[in-house]
Specification:
mainly alpha, globular
């Protein structure tokens, strides 16, 4: 199987026969396509399992941080108290925590995001196409839609005012925030990893560092958008100066919390997703090889 960077000419084989090669039969062509699609279906199944595994790994922590930030911005609970109390609740009663609606929202969000990224990679690999832009647009669409729905639910569930519809500017702010996060999670790491490798880093160290660094760094810029979106919902009569003061007062601790959150979400979660996907694909190849070996006997 050729990599995306490989040239088709690199796979060419010089064949010398006394008689000219005959045309490929329609039956052989169909069987080749069938085998190719069966292999793709196997890889897509691996993509789903890897995505769910990575999401399960990081979702409890993300749930705790997201709920704590929303409650703190609404004035319902101090950020430190919320993190401590929710963490204690998870440690003492993990299965009860996993049944909570907020956990289901987070788990579904990141499973959908990882599945989208993985499946686009697999389909583009099957078609020998570059996946960069397709993966960015696909993951951005899925992640933004799910994340805005999650934020709408969290804001209404954990705010201190009577649940109501989110202002339109809040949706735009959340969409801008998520676009930045997606670009920093799925597109920029490859660019930064290449720069690291050009500087002498090993491929593994460069990939892991870039995957952890890019999503965390973008929170320095995206956190004010997040805070402003929440404040527009919780306090609709504030002046622009009051909103600026609110963002300034909550910026440092909210940025730290979101960096701690984004690290698991797209850093550790991204690395875990890649690990599970590579491991399961390796097992899939071994299974296919054993089946082919038995068939050939």
């Amino acid at each position: 199987e050729l990599s995306q960077e490989g040239s088709p000419m690199a796979a060419a084989v010089v064949q010398i026969d006394v008689a000219p090669a005959g045309p490929i039969s329609k039956q052989g062509h169909k069987e080749g396509h069938k085998e190719g699609y069966e292999e793709l279906c196997g890889k897509l199944a691996v993509d789903v399992v890897a995505a769910a595994s990575a999401s399960l790994l990081v979702s409890p922590f993300i749930t705790i941080v997201d709920r704590s930030v929303v409650e703190n911005a609404a004035g319902a609970r101090n950020l430190k108290d919320a993190v401590r109390e929710l963490t204690t609740e998870f440690v003492r009663r993990p299965f009860a925590f996993l049944r909570k609606r907020e956990f289901h929202l987070i788990f579904g969000l990141y499973t959908a995001t990882y599945v989208t990224a993985n499946s686009i990679d697999s389909i583009c690999e099957f078609n020998e196409q570059d996946s960069t832009w397709a993966k960015f647009l696909g993951t951005a669409a899925v992640n933004m839609t799910c994340c805005i729905a999650k934020d709408r639910a969290f804001t209404r569930m954990f705010g201190i005012i009577k649940p109501s519809s989110l202002p339109l500017p809040t949706y735009f702010l959340f969409a801008a925030r998520d676009s930045m996060t997606i670009a920093a999670s799925f597109t920029l790491p490859k660019v930064l990893s290449k720069r690291f490798q050009e500087s002498g880093w090993t491929s593994g160290a460069a990939d892991t560092t870039a995957q952890l660094l890019c999503p965390a760094s973008v929170q320095l810029v995206s956190t004010p958008l997040h805070l402003l979106g929440l404040d527009l919902y919780n306090c609709r009569e504030k002046t622009p100066l009051a909103r600026a003061a609110f963002i300034k007062g909550h910026y440092t601790k909210s940025t730290i919390a979101r960096i701690c959150r984004i690290g698991p979400a797209f850093g550790i979660g991204g690395v875990g997703n890649n690990f599970f996907r590579a491991s399961l694909r390796g097992q899939l190849v071994q299974t296919d090889s054993r089946a082919l070996s038995r068939f050939s006997r």
